[in-house]
Amino acid sequence: MKNVFGNNITVTLFGESHGEQIGAVLDGIAPGIEIDMEFICKQLELRKPQGKISTQRVETDEPHIVSGVFEGKTTGTPICILFENSNTKSKDYSKTKNLMRPGHADFTAIEKYHGFADYRGGGHFSGRITTPIVAVGAILIKALQNKGIYIGSHIQKCGPIKDRGFEDYASDIAELNNKIFPVLDKKAAEEMHGLMVSAAEEGDSVGGVLETVVTGIPSGVGEPWFDSMESMLAHALFSVPAVKGVEFGEGFHFADMKGSEANDAFEVKDGKVVTKTNHNGGINGGITNGMPIRFQTVVKPTASIYKKQETVNIETMENEILQIHGRHDPAIIPRARVVVDSMTAIVLADMLAVRFGTDWLLGEN
Amino acid sequence: MKNVFGNNITVTLFGESHGEQIGAVLDGIAPGIEIDMEFICKQLELRKPQGKISTQRVETDEPHIVSGVFEGKTTGTPICILFENSNTKSKDYSKTKNLMRPGHADFTAIEKYHGFADYRGGGHFSGRITTPIVAVGAILIKALQNKGIYIGSHIQKCGPIKDRGFEDYASDIAELNNKIFPVLDKKAAEEMHGLMVSAAEEGDSVGGVLETVVTGIPSGVGEPWFDSMESMLAHALFSVPAVKGVEFGEGFHFADMKGSEANDAFEVKDGKVVTKTNHNGGINGGITNGMPIRFQTVVKPTASIYKKQETVNIETMENEILQIHGRHDPAIIPRARVVVDSMTAIVLADMLAVRFGTDWLLGEN
Amino acid sequence: MKNVFGNNITVTLFGESHGEQIGAVLDGIAPGIEIDMEFICKQLELRKPQGKISTQRVETDEPHIVSGVFEGKTTGTPICILFENSNTKSKDYSKTKNLMRPGHADFTAIEKYHGFADYRGGGHFSGRITTPIVAVGAILIKALQNKGIYIGSHIQKCGPIKDRGFEDYASDIAELNNKIFPVLDKKAAEEMHGLMVSAAEEGDSVGGVLETVVTGIPSGVGEPWFDSMESMLAHALFSVPAVKGVEFGEGFHFADMKGSEANDAFEVKDGKVVTKTNHNGGINGGITNGMPIRFQTVVKPTASIYKKQETVNIETMENEILQIHGRHDPAIIPRARVVVDSMTAIVLADMLAVRFGTDWLLGEN
Amino acid sequence: MKNVFGNNITVTLFGESHGEQIGAVLDGIAPGIEIDMEFICKQLELRKPQGKISTQRVETDEPHIVSGVFEGKTTGTPICILFENSNTKSKDYSKTKNLMRPGHADFTAIEKYHGFADYRGGGHFSGRITTPIVAVGAILIKALQNKGIYIGSHIQKCGPIKDRGFEDYASDIAELNNKIFPVLDKKAAEEMHGLMVSAAEEGDSVGGVLETVVTGIPSGVGEPWFDSMESMLAHALFSVPAVKGVEFGEGFHFADMKGSEANDAFEVKDGKVVTKTNHNGGINGGITNGMPIRFQTVVKPTASIYKKQETVNIETMENEILQIHGRHDPAIIPRARVVVDSMTAIVLADMLAVRFGTDWLLGEN
Fold first, then answer.
1. What dotted CATH number matches B4-357?
2. Is there a contact between C164 and C182 (Cβ–Cβ < 8 Å)?
3. If chain A, 365 residues long, is cut into consecutive pieces of 10 residues, what is the mean pLDDT of each piece?
4. Which of B229, C323, D91, D358 is in the most buried spot, having the most CB atoms within 10 Å?
5. Candidates B9, B225, B355, partner chain C, best to mutate (most C CBs within 10 A)
6. ipTM tops the 0.90 cut
């Protein structure tokens, strides 16, 4: 499918950067789940542009739930969440619409939609369309927390700067979920922020790697072969603009390991089977083993930069020089974090519903 | 879905390592496509164990097409391909079935299937189940070649050893597709082979990274957001056992790049829009841009090693020491190559059919 | 899936009778299709309550397209159409919410959604939710007409009264599509209307049968076995509330026919293969044969009647007598017509896109 | 999808009448379900040609399970069931292959598959392909019975002859499931059989209506709007060749009823909510209400008849007279019964798995 994802729980996405409204429909969620508007807004806050390292486009980003919620709880029927695009500038895009921005979907959109797509601000390909994903994700993140499942991500690496790894999952995740700039180590945070500011000053941008951890997920979840837990998570994550790589556990580092190092030994602990290490990121054979799920996602540098770039004019078919104006984030990774968490929640909720039925989220923990 | 993948063209997978037969059903392929049994067998040959670095289980791996092909051509109806499991040893698995092999799906299969799964030789999770994927993939690889689309992969990296990159796509791909050990540089090939042999001697195993290139793919293919080209490829690739990471273009290296380095400048060349570099791996916004698709897949070290490993006995719930016998590949990456190529072909054929209809493969190039 | 339908073109539905907004998302439609708001409104008019035989709830039913349309044409990205529920009465439902209305989904909604569903006015099960289906359908009906494909339905039968059959497809379809009360024969129309009025006077309701015809559909469309043209049409039609039967061609009358009567003889006419009769409704083996598609849909009598009915109080679990107040249609079949036409258009557009690709609707006829 | 059906439990179908093997893959079934080969064979027996009213093609129809079953129980992984086409006559089809048989898919297959389809004996469209559906259905019918869910069908009507209705569901269903000729009333059975024999003597064929009942289904099952219980059942039933109509409860008879007659009054009985009548066939708003599901399916007269028929030669594009030889059933409805029961079981098992998770069939009743 195109803008629909999921098996038992589905998300349908719609909207353009400069269209009237954007939104998502969440279908299949169990009835009786409390809707915490404050939490949804808090999550949306994490996606918002921040200070020097962010675009100045300020949307109120007020989520508007128009269906599927009754007396503060999910009804079990589709939840449609809308956002007004109140802050779309009346800027004239007609001058630049034929100049294909490198790193963006301008050119491929023309190849696919024959020039009928809304080109203003990236149209349907704009990062703005992740807003409803965050809102939908917030509902599921909260519902999963009520079942003892917690999701947390930090910027593991940005340029040469690395954050410390997770130490205590519970407290680290709690800390991250309250941080606008999701870095565990204070000094690393400062350095990363500095790197972003200096990239901004150069009219350039930087990328980075997010590390995500999920705790409390039951074992036995995943639908191999094709709907393995890794397949489904990667499917959703690669839908996020700017994501160009996903790896589980040791990921690409496995290429440097021996089998004796890579395998996670099992042991019995408190009457339960656990692994002594977690190189495989909590997933064996595409199915959760009860250990924390752990994966990394690379976010490429923001495609919109101020430096002059070579490109083509798609109408005249001539080479031209493009200079992008307006304001753009020198790094979207701080804001991408909550999108990744949201996509993770969508996949987990769906996989749990496939495994345990549509009511699982409603049940007692 | 579980063992079904695809939208317009689907693959259904079945079988266990020591069951009677394994196979796949390929549905939705255009009618009139020639079936080249020799090519299918050649592809299967690439998946077979080889010499010192491979298990001694030798299957004849004779593909048996029982439907969907008439007078040597596809009919347009489902193609079922079967393989006999002729060489399943009568070995007694009952002694070891309760010892969970680290890095394998033994434990997660018990958590999911409540102990009813066929545990012999990894059952449905065995790498052997990739055999029908290769057969199905071969049909599609050949059909795509007839449309000018070529797929090739090499071992980019194994431990510390690196292959040279692609130089001339056409000749490099042709060369790789005829090589059992898919490495471009002769010296790198020898060193990688040496590393695998020495790992075998230590009773250990190694992993590696495959780099895959697809040339000739039309622009405008991909169904954002959720069925982006990256999403669909990653979905399929993460279904392959031992794959733990997938990245497109520069992938995780994007974390070290500036936007000005990461963006691929456009230019007009021979009246066509191309990019000067291809850091984004031929995909922008989830849609192909007409440049070669390029991605890397990490294959973890073979989970079956001879070194003693700590594990649990799932019946007694006691810690035990496991020593795996029999023969196993110290590296499965040489054999994983054709599985990755096959999965790639499955995704591309499906995405092309979604975009251009069920007859596209049949049409004139 | 639940509120998502389709393969290449999908429709996602959301909303409740007394919720804030209702709507649908149409995804996968070709770019460049002109949006004729006047036509959409005209189609919505056909769904609206009419005079004596309809409920007095009057919604303005103004469609609000918030995405996927740019400069009056489809962009190829998801179209979200919204409707405000402006006219939801402040009526107190709390008195009757525990009385399960016979023939409605009140009780089954409680069994499925555990009492969390929005019970006001039937909630998500209200016929009102067909409004966005009609809007989405209108876009597709118009696009199909531009490809020479026409859909028309009439009330074939209501109680003992029968309409005449189709004579000249083109003119009959054109006539029906301009009629609020879709009956071909004037006298039959008057009698049916009289029957509905007299049912209303008795506080009762009546059902009927719609006959639908599609002309201009290419041959070779349908994806047997499971996505046969009949399967997909029936799937969509049985999603419409009150539809309890669907039959193709002679349908249930086939039980009274001999094979020699039922088979449609082929002949060559103007260099084309056609059938002399069309007992099979234009479909053989689940695939269109190029003749008009013809099917009948039965619509049960409106479940909301004024006569006293026996029922239970779901809270007290005691038998009670229910008397429904407010105003309701004594027959919904005149309004169901455009919903059936819309569902038909959705299925056809999807099946054509699966067969011929996402751009088919855009192409030259 | 094409030859794949279902959401949580899927069936993939393959094979041609005169191909090597036909079969199906059942995926998603709970692990630990006992496989009763005797029961599967008994069900297959119900599909076999019988005496004077059936074709003489006798297949041994021996089901061959090659995966997904271990130590007599389902493993939870895909079950592939194969059947050899041992009895394919070496008859020369080349003479008649260009003569399109009226009522068959010969012509539409050419329109869809461009003449590449296997035309021998109807190829993939042959009724023979229902054999694996019956085998897969048998596994699920048995598993559903273990959960207290029973399915039974009888020929309600054949030409002018009518069977009596269901009286005691339990004993009637048990009786039918042991009858080759599924008619409850002995005299009606004789008359129907007589009608079929006399149609055979005339070189003609007859159709009929099957009535199906399902008891023991829990309430709250069904996924409105689009995967309503009626939508899913109809989708599957219309995949069966020769099925041209499906109606639930009173079905087309609703057109002659008043709302006061059509609505099923609720009452409390033994502490449970039940309906006093069951005109709606156990389904309200697309969701089961706990009453027996009841529907009717019309099976058109066998398309293969001996009488001369007008048709076209698709190669010469000239009108010709066709006379079909070989032996064919004058009525397939007695054999279609078990196919309808099987499809019903597939849909119910899938819908129950979507609602309650993949393990539901395994659980305690």
1. 3.60.150.10
2. no
3. 97 97 98 98 92 62 96 98 81 84 97 96 95 98 98 98 98 97 98 97 97 98 98 98 98 98 98 98 98 98 96 97 88 97 98 97 77
4. B229
5. B355
6. yes
